[in-house]
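Components:
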Amino acid sequence: MEKILEVRNLSKVFGKGCPNCFEKTGPELNTNICPDCKSVVAAHDLSLDLYKGEILGIMGESGSGKSTVVKNLFFDQDPTSGHAIFYDDDKQYDLFSLNAAQKRHLRNHHFGMVYQNPHLGLNFGISSGGNIAERLLMNDLRNYKEIRERARELLERTEVLTERMDELPKNFSGGMQQRVQIAKALAINPPMLYLDEVTTGLDLSVQAKILDLILEIQQEMNTAMIVVTHDLGVVRLLAGRTIVMKYGRIIESGLTDQILEDPQHAYTQRLVASAL
Amino acid sequence: MTAMRKANAAYPFGFLDEYAKKEVRRTVLKAIAIPGYQVPYSSREMPMGRGFGTGGLQLTLSIIGEDDTLKVIDQGSDDSVNAVNLRSFIEMTCDGIDTTDITDKANLIQSRHRIPEKPLREDQIIVLQVPYPDPLVVVEPSEDKRKIMHGEADYSRLLVKLYEDIVKFDEITISHRYPTCINGHYVIDPSPIPRWDVPKLHQSKALVLLGAGREKKIYAVPPYTDAEPLAFDDMPFRVESFNDENGQRRCCDRCGDDTSFLDEFDGQGGEKVYQCSDSDWCREQSIAKGA
Amino acid sequence: MTAEPILSVEGFSKHFELHEQAKTIPSSSNVNFDVYAGKLTALIGPTGAGKSSVLKGIYRTYLPSSGRITYHAANGTSLNLALADEHQILELRSREIGFVTQFLHALPRQSTEDVVAQPLYQRGVSREQGRQKAREVLANLNIPERLWGVPPATFSGGEKQRVNLARGLIAKPRLLLLDEPTASLDPTTTDRVVEMIQAMKAEGTAMLAIFHHPDLVERLADNVVTLTPPVALNNKEVTS
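Structure:
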């Protein structure tokens, strides 16, 4: 198995920060707000590895910092400290030392992101097909017919009626918008996909279909994914390995079935016990 | 006219003070050095409303000298109100310059909406008046973000606009201000010239300067520089067609030319009449035919 | 035994630390046995003897508390499953070690044939081929053809169990862990399962199983390991 992503000691502090921020926050102290400087320690000292085609779950409650990880890796935020290396065949990218153009290149050519809120991932002013076209155009595809063809294919794959590809996403249901978002993220066949609470807020039956779709895609395309969720069911179905976070720290990590059936940390035990 | 000139004799040559002109010239140099890049400058107040060609006017006033021969056109015509007024203002404030209607004779041409049909030469400069300099404004409201997009040559959203056009209308419907990529990087709004004139920017022998007074930007297409209109590989850029229902190329009602950009009018009996948009070109063709 | 074992469990113990209740629950202690290619080792013992814990410990669904679990992989290397890296475990799960549990976990909308073919998909087998293979196994296990295309969520206990079994068998693992695979099956189907297990043994699959009925142990087991419930922590017990 080949490594695709390596994250070491990632920290993200919102606020001016002080020397005590890390000491005075964390799960033991039950807070992520530094009492001295009031900065929010969204993430501290996170390290993880991801292999090609693997799905890693990051689980935690709101405020645990789980989304911070993918936001930093997708360059929506800049970390306060830490390293991350993305491996692309024989090339490797030191993610946090890239310039804006290099970051954009990685986002456009190698990464995909699906947000909980479709407004973040989709341009609601243009058609669903146009949204996918945008991603393909960013990837330097310049043939109109090919773009149409590929957009149709992707929407078919994500089970969006292709007759509706020229409609604006705002006319779609939440589940359908999520499908369009997934189609858009996948348009360039990214080896690395980030999913941030993608099924939160959807009907249970719609959730199941989306999860099913994600798993099928992972198997078909061998896409590595980081799935951020507060839902144990989601990690159970999708993730081979899971990281549990609380107040910006990794509390526990392991094989997903082990995390769910033999959790080691008191917090995880409570989390699992209350959910099952 | 003479009375007015005397009345304004207190103004320096070119109306603007020397510092203002120098700033514009420096801006022009930068614009030439970075083809297609919108260089900001401190657009001065002119004795006319912004939006009436003050950007082009400041360019003209800053680079014109006593030995120059100026032509001013608006919509292809030297006689339209806007052209006449600009020309007389420049004549009034630039003692000693010559003006002309003849494209060939001018070495400086200020224009709105058209580039002359007659191919321009290396010794000529054309100044285009620009209302909206940034082609990205239709897809991104934030100027900060637009600047980043320009810097990274990120024009995919502009192409999406073209995509949506084709989806809706089966063709790219942009008639004026066609986004054009200069020297392989920056995409410009080439001012409200018709598609017809866009190919004239490509490898133009003449320097093309574009000035937006209200938006305080100057940019340039230097001589012999690539200018490629955005398009898809399988949906290439096309200029306006002047063919009639039978596929016959229409010709000018006055000079009979069938190679120029035509304006459409309603004739006496309500029928459509077509005439050269470029009045100097039309005149020249008429003379050639007559001779 | 002349052959080298595929799996050697030495001094395996598992206890659960329940932080909330401040309790330690012993589950298995000092378990020792070997598993060989083409042979079935049965774990027997009363409820609470920690039989499932041993299987889960080997599969790493449980983190072993102590002991060594040496697995000799197909590529000739051997590793201690108790301490192996998670990625190594995932790799082994997808290529070499299968586990048929008592309960079926499947995606809600997935058709039965896709549920069964899942392990093949994970190895990169095409949908077409995977489904073809799944249908063969399902037919072998007497699952009516009309059920193949629907999700197993609404199936009876016995049907679900057979689907689960089909999924475990389809990938032909080198080592198969079976946790009461026939608990709710009728005699005819149980016979089919026995035949299939025998066929797999003949093909060289090593198996470690917990059976509900002593009868099945008799029919299938080559070795029997008896576990007794751990009395308290640190008390050693048990083994073949």
